Amino acid sequence: MGLYYESAGMLIALISLGKYLEAVSRRRTSDAIKGLMDLTPESVSLLGENGESREVPVRAVVAGDRLLIRPGSRIPVDGVVAEGSSSIDMSSLTGEPVPVEVTTGDEVAAGTMNVSGAFVMEARHVGAETVLARVIRLVRDAQGSRAPIAGLADRVSLYFVPVVITLATLAGLAWHVLGHLPFGDALRIFVAVLVVACPCALGLATPMSIMVATGRGAQLGVLIKSGSALESAGHLNVLVFDKTGTLTEGAPRVAGIHPAAERDGAGLDENAMLRMAASLEAVSEHPLAHAVLEAAKSAEVSPLPVDDFRAVSGRGVQGLVGDGPLPHRVLLGNAAMLREGGVKLPGDLENGLLASLADEGQTPLLLAVDGKFAGVLGLADPLREESPRLVRALKERGIRVVLLSGDNARTARAVAARAGIEEVIADVLPDGKDAVIADMRAKGLHVGMVGDGINDAPALARADVGMAMGSGIDVAMEAGDMVLLRGLPGVLTALDLSRAAMANIRLSLFWAFAYNVLLIPIAAGVLLLFGGPGMSPMLGGAAMAMSSVSVPARRRRRA
């Protein structure tokens, strides 16, 4: 029996060593979170009321504090530039390698690097409310989440322990009673079976893969919110894309101004048209308003005062423009709005100019002044450079690609053609997008939705996997199952991470099953029946420890 107690001592040592190595491997899977946490400096220069600065811990900063940010230092909290200007390296959040110029009024985010000049910023979001803190929280929550495939390991583990105890007892009794082994030797077989059986590898396979994949995703600019989303991404066979801000840059510009012919219109030239349009858009919140105002600024055209302003959903805007005794009644929107306002449109407008603009992927804004048609402003939203490459890559993987847009069909088809997409669903409102996704899923398709995370929120929530575009500080983190901080390339990254993680999980489960199926019989003394060697508890403990350690080790090699 002395040898048995010696083996027991060695067994405890080997198992402890295995748990230690396993813990080290687990800590290493959290390198992504540690790297993100290291982006926040420990102290910052706080400006007092007299303008003097003093070093204070970042945790002491509150919203409204004024901070001095020197060149080469990291920004400690979210806020806005109050004085000065500089270049900010935002690659830690967005992956964009080119520094962004910021000046008074521009937003800056915690964790980014001030490259050039010193500036003063006002803190807006501190502590757990910063973008960086939310990113860390998302990654940490995802690493602790479960994937549906974990249910298989759970079901096996539920019966594993009683089955192994039963097998160990039967093996020990069989060798002692039927095989006439001494009690000490039979007891060793009993202990060897208990020790060599390893449910740990089954339990570690899924969480370790999820931890590595979500951590790696954060490093590559893809925030994966749950293990379920990670698993589902690998099964997608349809990817639906929003147009504006997803396939396109989301920064429309005025591509052309087309005054009406003298016989048809109000007789305004391009600058006069731009002035009227900019006057209305100056008080509008429509996404296209910024493009019109930027065009007016470039042309050095100043907007006029506006009264009785009204925005008509799905139509456009209208109001009284001018500060004289007889202001102009101005309408700016689509053809339906002008017709409803009693404006007579040229007979060849829709099949002529409007059709031509739509074929070029431009959105037309029709202008009418004092009841007369004045002309059309054509707005273009440039296609993202990476959109065609992404579409080609998805098709090569056998994934069906669909463009889903609220824009008119002709414009949507023009953009889709440039991106390489054949299937287009246009003229769809936000609630209609949700219905389209629901219909696809009802047909048994595994559907992913890629959108801007705000207007497409219902569709993102309805899809099997919703991927929200995130750009800079304005990241729609609450929408979708994933956030693509670095734009469209993140779609392929998410798919690759999902498939790699699921392959790792399946491989780990296979080897865990194979290990137990092979070694439990050996520990039970099957080889002894044929004159072969037995397995000591010490050797069984070493095998069990190595089996547990191999799971995190394999995850890291494949990450």
* Major sheet size, sense and barrel closure: 8 strands, mixed
Q: Number of DSSP helices?
A: 19
Class per helix and strand makeup? alpha+beta
In total, the number of strands is 23
Count the domains.
Answer: 4
Mean pLDDT: 81
The stretches of 5 or more residues where confidence is low (pLDDT under 50) are 472-476
The coarse silhouette is elongated
Based on CA atoms alone, the radius of gyration comes out at 32 Å
What percentage of residues falls in helices of 4 or more residues? 40-55%
Distance between the termini: 46 Å
Strand portion: 15-25%
Write the layout of secondary structure elements.
Blueprint: H1 2-29, H2 31-37, E1 43-47, E2 53-57, E3 66-69, E4 78-83, E5 86-89, H3 91-94, E6 100-102, E7 107-108, E8 113-114, E9 119-125, H4 131-143, H5 150-178, H6 183-196, H7 200-219, E10 222-224, H8 227-233, E11 238-241, H9 243-247, E12 253-259, H10 270-281, H11 289-298, E13 306-312, E14 316-321, E15 328-333, H12 335-340, H13 350-359, E16 362-369, E17 372-380, H14 387-396, E18 400-404, H15 409-419, E19 423-425, H16 430-442, E20 447-451, H17 457-462, E21 465-471, E22 474-475, E23 482-484, H18 489-523, H19 537-558
Parallel strand pairs: 11-18, 11-20, 18-19, 20-21, 21-23
Antiparallel strand pairs: 1-2, 1-3, 3-9, 4-7, 4-9, 5-6, 5-8, 10-23, 12-17, 13-14, 14-15, 15-16, 16-17, 21-22
